[in-house]
Amino acid sequence: MGEPSSEHLRAIIQTQTEIAASDLDLDATMRLIAARGQELTGATAGVVELTDDEDMVYKVVTGEATPFLGMRVPMAGSLSGLCVKEDRVLRSDDTLTDPRVNVEACRRVRARSMLCVPLVHRARTVGVLKVYSSVPRAFSAGDVETLELLSELIAAQMSHATLLAVEVHGGRHDALTGLPNRRAYEERLAVEVSRASRYDWPLTLCLIDLDGFKAVNDGLGHPAGDKVLCRVAAVIDESRLADDKFRIGGDEFAILMPKTPREDAALAATRLCHAICEVEVPGGSIGASFGLAERLDDPVAMHAAADAELLAAKDDLYGR
Fold this sequence. Notes:
By secondary structure, the chain is of the alpha+beta class. Helices cover about 50% and strands about 20% of the residues. The chain has 11 helices and 10 strands. The chain is elongated.
């Protein structure tokens, strides 16, 4: 079997050093390694898939796989599932003729050839590090060795995690409200922007900030304020089931509305703010202001546009 080039070995050592020097957490490590695997093998996408019941779930995505974060593929009938089951490296040189692959999933993500390497955590195969390409026969024996070395870096990082599932959930969810947190929001915003650009469909971002919440904290105390935040989060979470909702800090929330033009998003946001005004507050009341941004190619710019509109709404409310 071929071996990685000296250039690839230096890149892998550099990756290991970067992980150690930066004290990256598990998720950041997996993102870095997936990106490095894509780069070193010349793939069009890098993916970390983890097992969840009978499915493989796209937990980390790079390159052309970016729009497919969270995608689920049944273990049965997929190359990744077979890789986990047999605990060995599997390569498909052409997914159109390979009976081991999930043809529909491969067509959806544009994977014509792929390479899967097992990820082992506590002597159990829990997922795969995968790269794929939109052209057939894209990967060599040397690419196999490269990906195996990178998978060992993930395994080493996993060994420091006592409860992988809890760690992943806790790192992306707000402890008070249970909504996904700012970190999850930033990741999801990038995914939805990429997906909307890929398929040329509308996407609107809504940022919501509570009005009068400081008076609740000052007058009733933080425990009462926390209860109000939980009630508001419940109202937001129950609205428009197809949307992604996040608490991104303090009394600020974000809602991603895929396939929703600005006019429809404005109506939904207005209804939601009216519902927030009805949240029970002992001896008082709260309101909510919102800002919207339609799809932009840059997630940071899209957030900034919505934030600017939210600040303008706040200025109008308080006569600034």
